[in-house]
Amino acid sequence: MESNFKGFIERWAPVLRIVMLVMICLIAVLIRVFSVIRFESIIHEFDPWFNYRTTRYLAEKGVYEFWNWFDSNSWFPLGRVIGGTLYPGIMMTAGALHQWANLLTFPIDIRNVCVFLAPIFSALTALACYLLTKEVTGKTEPSLFSALFISIVPSYISRSVAGSYDYEGVAIFALLFTFYLWIKAANTGSLIWSGMASLSFFYMAASWGGYAFIVNIIPIFAIVLILIGRFNTNTYIGYCSFHILGTLLAMQIPFIGFQAVTASEHLPSHTVFIFINVYYFCEWIKEKVGETRFNTLKKVVLGVSATAIVLVALFLTLTGRMKWTGRSLSLLDPTYAKKFIPIVASVSEHQPTTWSSFFFDLHILVFLAPAGFYYCIMEHNNGKLFIALYGVLSVYFASVMVRLLLVLAPALCILAGIGLSETIHRFARHIIHFREWWDYYNTPEEIRGHKPKYGYPLELSIPILVILAISVIAYINHCVWVGAEAYSSPTIIMSHKGHDGEKIIVDDYREAYYWLRMNTKPDAKIMSWWDYGYQITGMGNRTVLVDNNTWNNTHIATVGMIFASDDDESARLLRKLDANYVLVLFGGLSYYSGDDINKFLWMIRIASGVFPHIKEDDFLNRGQYRVDGGATETMMKCLMYRLSYYRFGQVGGAYGKAPGYDVVRQTEIGLKDYELKNYREVYTTKHWIIRIFEILPEDNREVARSKTQYIKKSEDYLLQYNLTRSKTRPSK
Amino acid sequence: MNMALFILLGVAVMALDTSGFTNTYVDRVIDLTGRYSHSINTITVLNHASSSVSKYYYAISKDNYEKLAHIRAYFKDEPHNLFKIDHVPEESTSQYELLKITIPRGIASKAETDLIVEEILAQKLEPYPSKIGIFDPQLLWFEDNIHLLSPYKTKSSRTRVSFPTQNIESYTQPEDMLYDLKGKELTYGQYSDLPAFANLPLQLHFENSNPLPYFTRVERQIEVSHWGNIAISEFYNIINRGAELKGEFSRVDLSHRYKSAAQNALESLQAILPKTSWGLSYRDELGNVSTSRARQHPSYVHLEVMPRFPMLGGWKSNWNIGYNLPMKYFVKNKGDQYMLNTTFGFPFKEIIAEELIVKVILPEGATDIDVALPFEIDHKHFETLHSYLDTTGRPVLVLTKKNAVDYHRKPFQVIYKFSSVQMMREPLMISGIVLCAMLLLIFYYRFDLALDKTLKKLKTE
């Protein structure tokens, strides 16, 4: 009977495995479409709008047009070379899917391809995770567990819900698949696997800046293997061929280009490559020349090469060839960004991670992974060591930056899968062998044989298994809740329940952008803080001065300076920049806390870095940032304040508060009755979240006076002869 | 030179046989209460020729002809029997265009008949001033002719103009002529013994704070699926041609407690859909527009759509609405011969569409397509659409009509041949592909394709 059952299980195991994998893939997709069900099939947030816009361009005009696209709609008047400044992986993927679907007579809208790309890739990620764990452990159970874990891990859901059309959506798949192929290559020493790993790496490099993680973790792993003496020919072939091919392929991406050789992120990879080859070369020489003569040689060579390396490094650093990008530096030194690059520090996803977000995004994995880590170290092979190393490194990175939790999540899923499956295995065998133990326990002591190998009492094994089961169920519940509630909002549409339970949708973003799209001139230039740049170009189809691709700090600082200047000065600067409209976000009426007044201090900081006459202290009243009566004069005069609160003082306050009560800052604004001199309000959305102002053309008389010389001369003449002029003359 | 022109003109006018008819009485009603001007001219026509005459000429000023959105003529007692109206360019002059109304059975000799000619003019109501403050009422300027411009002599006539409000800035007050303004109605006349082409300019300046919306382009797609559904999606480009905003836009003013602001803003539009319609959607280029309401009534579905923003004068927008209809109520068949019977016009009332395109997308394999329309259209052609699982493509009948108004919301019929075997094509295709894939898999797993058997043996060991 028992053997029958066992045989049955064994016979059907492959089928069960496939069924389970298919179900995991289904879950991975389904848990990510809550946003489509709750809201609609729409692109979310900020960056995805740029990706979507470029993908549309690609789908409409083809690859070559896309590659050579000079986008004049952003960074006015500088523009942006799109092909050379982005990772094209995601656009190419969506474009290719769209084209294939069209060929197969499924004319799907490109928007839907973009919206559902991330969920589809998360299913592929689950498969890649399964393969990687399988390759590492050689067992199915931990692989299935880790596939299940990664398919629903909240940290990954947050980046890959339907509509979240961003690099990370495909990059995590590419990351895991590259690891899988590379481990395969390192285990087998096969050039085919190594080549495939390089191709997968190419895709990763084309998709996400996070490819640098692969570039660094693999050499570190190689060094670790050498140190513990597990480096062998197979690993050598795997590493060297992958390094050469991978670097060459990465250089094909215009955005990376020669950075693959010069950038410091790639330096460890090259160094280790050289080191390994020198090491093997030395081994070979040692074999030929013998131990003693080799030692003398070693001394000479080491001395020379050490000096050479120091000199080269010095030369590179001094000539500035070796540069670390700001984001990478802030990874090595978490306080770097705060000190030197406010534009990186101002982004919330670049903040250090808190313990609560660890738990929220990873839940039970945080506890299961250490067990997996333990098993990986105790029963190690190359693959398990790699996973352990991946875990350790990514824990560090994740602690520095919130967004890198995403890189940690796969490591923890695999480790947790291994840990959980091993633990279950260990406790389950006590239950299976329970009868042996029972017999042993119940026989009198004299005739007992030796103690059976597996023998814990049931009352220990079963509760532990039950606890594990409950925690995994809790994890699944948590993930589903997160997928449904926390991470399913598109952020451009907000919804809340009204007094009578009716769903109220706040759709101000699209309202404003559609207004721009329909009722401004097609070549209108719009100034806003860079956060909304991608959305204005994507949804409003209008030109912006700065956007989320924060490549030009000066330009962003200029915008910050304009917002911090007063009415006349800002208008003067805006006219110079040829801008037509100013767009500000204001949440003071409708509890929208992420508005421009709250971001304003960052704008001042960024501006003051480039334009020293903007001083943060001028906007702070004894160190406090205030908008009420205690706001400083500079604050009350600046454009941001004037535009945000324009005519807000005439709005009846909420819940018996005075007119002009700002619900976000919980205070009554300090300056209520004022007029704009150079600006005209042209549109404000229903809940006041977005306000659009037009910059009025300059006064005719002023132009004539300042630009033509002879009028100035005649003024002097009139002054000289004490002649009076009309009162309309402006006082200087 | 001048003389020559006069003679030529004279010849042109003389070429018309205007002696046959006299307008014994003309009752001209100009309705200015709505979003466009609508004039109804009731003409009592007397044929004093000796035989029955079937051609009645109708003149229309150049300006009106350019703005003419719709014209129709019929006898008062049979309003559904419309007469054919043709433009006669060779008889037109620099002042007016001449139209020919063909009355099939003619007007009998010495008989008197009431002929009604209705005109709808687009963009005839002009905001003046063209820019107004947010609290100001919208004033419109209207110019026309008091008398009916007719190539025939008129015995007596009367003109009535109706306004939406009593607030009338100015109106033409001709000397030694009768006129009378009472509340919202202005009456000119009664005048007697008018010569042919009697001309007396009419200028009106009055308050009308209605929004003046125009659809610059409407595209309706009617997609018939023989699996039982008709999917309709309609794309609208709209502009409010009312007075533009002078000064600032402000939510403070818009929600003013005592004064109504931006009165000429278009806040919402109402559509009446067939009662069996389901799966309604209201979207635009950025996705779903959340401001819409639909209600099911016993005999229709009432859909109210609001643009994303209140449409002030001069503002534009676009959107599309979609809905489905069950096929069984709209498509009838006799064997392989099918007839689709649905509405031509769009479901929004009292808006002129400058261009209406109706695309009827028939299932793949439909042939012998023909259309029966209750009125004339400007253009008709066929296209092919490649949609889901199509190989040869679906035939699309494209009907274009310039200037569509409420009148064009009439049923029309599309007749086509379609064999029901065609319906099975797509399911069979999919099953075939799946079958092939499975066969390939079977072959792949059952056949050993390795060249070097020893290697494989090594591996399994």
TrEMBL record, chain A:
GO CC, one annotated term: membrane
E.C. no: 2.4.99.18
Ranges where the Oligosaccharyl transferase STT3 N-terminal domain occurs: 16-416
Main location: membrane
Entry keyword tRNA-binding: no
Keywords for the protein's UniProt record, in alphabetical order: Glycosyltransferase, Magnesium, Manganese, Membrane, Metal-binding, Transferase, Transmembrane, Transmembrane helix
Coiled-coil annotated residue ranges, if any: none
Species of origin: Blepharisma stoltei
Cofactor(s) named in the record: Mn(2+); Mg(2+)
Annotated family: Belongs to the STT3 family.
Pathway info: Protein modification; protein glycosylation
InterPro entries cross-referenced by the UniProt entry: Oligo_trans_STT3 (IPR003674), STT3-PglB_core (IPR048999), STT3_N (IPR048307)
Reactions listed under catalytic activity: a di-trans,poly-cis-dolichyl diphosphooligosaccharide + L-asparaginyl-[protein] = N(4)-(oligosaccharide-(1->4)-N-acetyl-beta-D-glucosaminyl-(1->4)-N-acetyl-beta-D-glucosaminyl)-L-asparaginyl-[protein] + a di-trans,poly-cis-dolichyl diphosphate + H(+)
STT3/PglB/AglB core domain segment(s): 526-582
Protein name listed in UniProt: dolichyl-diphosphooligosaccharide--protein glycotransferase
Top-level EC class: transferase
Location in the cell: Endomembrane system
Pfam families attached to this UniProt entry: STT3, STT3-PglB_core
GO molecular function term, any single one: metal ion binding
Record Gene3D superfamilies: 3.40.50.12610
Membrane-spanning intervals of the chain: 12-34, 78-98, 110-132, 144-161, 167-183, 212-229, 236-261, 267-285, 297-318, 358-377, 389-418, 460-484
tRNA-binding recorded as keyword: no
Topology within the bilayer: Multi-pass membrane protein
TrEMBL record, chain B:
Organism: Blepharisma stoltei
Compartmental location: Endoplasmic reticulum membrane
Lineage: Eukaryota, Sar, Alveolata, Ciliophora, Postciliodesmatophora
Residues spanning the signal sequence: 1-20
Keyword Transmembrane helix assigned: yes
Name of the protein in its database record: Dolichyl-diphosphooligosaccharide--protein glycosyltransferase subunit 1
Annotated InterPro entries: Ribophorin_I
GO CC annotation terms, alphabetical: oligosaccharyltransferase complex
TM segment ranges: 428-447
Oligomeric and partner information: Component of the oligosaccharyltransferase (OST) complex.
Pfam families found in the cross-reference section: Ribophorin_I
